[in-house]
């Protein structure tokens, strides 16, 4: 559905919810490719052919995003959700930058996105490091809730960037210590096994508890980063 109102001027930077939908579409495509390859390999009598198929799938998964971002400005998930990855200099990213962007995103995972609300153009870490943004491909087809325009510079009552960064770093360190303390408590009360915490030998319930704790840490980090950059943490509050 398109809006009857004319598009706002300037670039339209995608919100996290829109980017998340693009990631989900790409995950679904990758999962379909993996299951299809496994089904084909299981019906092939040749080990050599199965091995070649496996290598081909790995190369496709590794090059899928960099090549498409380089050539057409985004993955199939980006296109499906009306998004485009744009170089700060204009146009598509070079292959080297698209590959570096994919590598950083793969290493950091969801942690790369926690800084989005603290940036002027809704950039994740992999966007910032490669000088790129994710924008609405066709603003005429976008709804207002799917994007933001560039945020204005901070007002004079905001603490300095250095102070906010230092205070945010302190709170992030405290969050990590809190996370480790919670894990220790979970082990003590029997909710998680000691082998899972110290040796990474986990059963089904351990995996559930560990995943829940990791999600809680991710949400806490995101909250600290956003509040810190917006001047809402004690020690670096907006006047």
Task: Give the beta-strand count.
Answer: 6
Number of helices, where a helix is a run of at least 4 consecutive DSSP H or I residues:
8
Structural class, by secondary structure, is mainly alpha
List SSEs in N-to-C order.
Answer: EHHHEHHEEHHHEE
Report the major sheet: 2 strands, antiparallel
Which stretches are poorly predicted, pLDDT < 50 over at least 5 residues? none
As a percent range, the share of strand residues is 5-15%
The number of distinct structural domains comes to 2
Strand order across the biggest sheet? 1-4
- Given the C-alpha coordinates, what overall shape results? flat
- Terminal-residue CA separation: 42 Å
Average pLDDT, rounded to a whole number, is 89
Radius of gyration from the CA trace? 22 Å
Labels describing this entry:
239 residues; mainly alpha; 2 domains; two-stranded antiparallel ribbon; 6 strands; 8% strand; flat
Tell me what the structure shows.
With 239 residues, the chain is mainly α. The protein has two domains: 13-148, no CATH class; 161-237, no CATH class. Helices cover 57% and strands 8% of the residues. The protein contains eight helices and six strands; from the N terminus they run E-H-H-H-E-H-H-E-E-H-H-H-E-E. It has helices at residues 16-42, 47-72, 76-80, 95-108, 125-129, 161-188, 194-199, 204-229; strands spanning 13-14, 83-87, 132-136, 147-148, 232-233, 236-237. The chain has a two-stranded antiparallel ribbon. Strand 5 and strand 6 (236-237) form a beta hairpin. It is flat and about 70 Å long. The two termini are 42 Å apart.
């Amino acid at each position: 559905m398109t809006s009857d109102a004319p598009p706002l001027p300037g670039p339209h930077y995608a919100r996290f919810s829109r980017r998340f939908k693009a990631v989900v579409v790409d995950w679904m495509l990758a999962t379909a490719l993996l299951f299809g390859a496994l089904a084909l390999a299981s019906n092939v009598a040749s080990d050599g052919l199965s091995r070649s198929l496996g290598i081909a799938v790995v190369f496709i998964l590794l090059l899928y995003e960099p090549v498409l971002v380089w050539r057409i400005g985004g993955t199939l998930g980006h296109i499906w959700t009306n998004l485009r990855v744009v170089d700060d200099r204009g146009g598509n990213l070079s292959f080297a930058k698209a590959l570096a962007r994919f590598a950083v995103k793969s290493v950091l995972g969801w942690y790369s996105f926690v800084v989005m609300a603290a940036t002027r153009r809704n950039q994740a870490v992999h966007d910032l490091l490669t000088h790129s943004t994710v924008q609405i491909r066709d603003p005429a087809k976008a709804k207002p809730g799917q994007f933001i325009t560039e945020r204005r510079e901070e007002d004079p009552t905001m603490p300095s960037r250095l102070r906010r960064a230092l205070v945010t770093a302190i709170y992030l360190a405290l969050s990590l210590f809190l996370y480790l303390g919670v894990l220790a408590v979970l082990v003590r009360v029997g909710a998680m096994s000691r082998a899972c915490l110290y040796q990474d030998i986990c059963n089904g319930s351990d995996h559930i508890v560990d995943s829940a704790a990791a999600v809680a840490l991710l949400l806490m980090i995101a909250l600290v980063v956003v509040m810190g950059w917006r001047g809402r943490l004690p020690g670096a509050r907006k006047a």
